[in-house]
Amino acid sequence: MTEPQASFFQLPHKFPAFVAGFGTGKTETMLNCAIRDALDSSAALIAMYEPTYDLVRLILAPRMEEKLTDLGIRYRYNKSENIIYTSTGGCGDFVMRTLDNPARIVGYESYRAHVDELDTLNEKQAELAWRKIIARNRQRPKGQEKPFNRVSVYTTPEGFRFVYKKWKKDPKPAYGMVQAATRSNPFLPDDYIESLREDYPPQLIEAYLNGEFVNLTSGAVYPDFSRELNHSPTILLPNEALHVGLDFNVNNMAAIGFVIRDEAPHAVNELVKVRDTPTMAAMINERYKSQGHAVTVYPDASGQNTSSKGASVSDLTILQNAGFTIRTGTVNPRVKDRVNSVNALVLNSNGMRRLRVNTDACPTFTDCMEQQAYDDNGEPDKKSGHDHANDAGGYFLNFRWPVIKKTQSHGAHVPHMTR
């Protein structure tokens, strides 16, 4: 085995995932683990899943037959049932099923299960298939007093989808993961990696060569943002000034808090899914202003006209009455200008990354920066929910580090400050 394959083979988790690029031996790893599990008991039934029937018929079944033959395990393949029955003592059987119709995952109980390319399904289908698979994975084979029912996944990362959310973003203790890059496999042809680089764009290469979760949606709004490269463990120090970018939305307000270090912005906290402006003002006051931090708020300029609570007083007036310093323009900057300002801070043409994000303290802001894409009209998408935190942070970042010069007369961004 390669090093990542061996690491995965030894994972103790109930739900391990082998997330890997092309040519890393995902299928080989799945076969090895499935046969290992079958050798626990001759009564064990090992379930193996592929996205489609063609993959079962053309890849999984022939590879299983070849593997069993090489190991000297006697078997009979029932093609109508898609079950491989073994007759070698101490080895269980294998049932092969598809993921394209999760409703058909019924009628049997498995001891262990192995799922191939789960992330190629859309999120809803993957979620349904996963629930069906783990529900069926409850067999207690004879001779196993304390059976450890386990479901293993083997997949190429397909953006921020089901596998990312289950195994990377916020994994529960039962979920463990090994990520493998294509270069970890020494048995590939010498020109294999280079041939892929010639045919795939950079974003896809990150996923399909390095096994990394990246935004695969065409036209990412912040394509150079990296939770690793833009990360900083910066925290808010006692009595340090806090700069808060604020986006108004009924029942879904967002605020991103920044400090300025060496003339560069560092995101250090966030408040998201807040009900309305009075609630947001009270939270900022309680958590920061009352603790000795001078707070400057950089809100959506539209807040001077309406209130998120529907009251006669404007959102900006509510913030002013709370004692915050308010900095905003008479109108919002053009979306394109705001996005360009943020992208210049994410990574400029000199290779400098000035925007820093404490990804542990700002998980929503981090996800949104990674995942927001352009819609069909060429505007930053607002249907996925990834816009609120980005808009909030962008108001502050564009105000302090605008791409357009303030001395320009036509279409200039004219700020004002109130207390």
UniProtKB/TrEMBL annotation:
InterPro entries: P-loop_NTPase, Terminase_6C. It comes from the Bacteria. Pfam families: Terminase_6C (PF17289), Terminase_6N (PF03237). Keywords: Viral release from host cell. This is Terminase large subunit domain-containing protein. Residues 244-398 form the Terminase large subunit gp17-like C-terminal domain. The keyword Secreted does not apply. The keyword Metal-binding does not apply. The lineage of its organism: Bacteria, Pseudomonadati, Pseudomonadota, Betaproteobacteria, Burkholderiales.
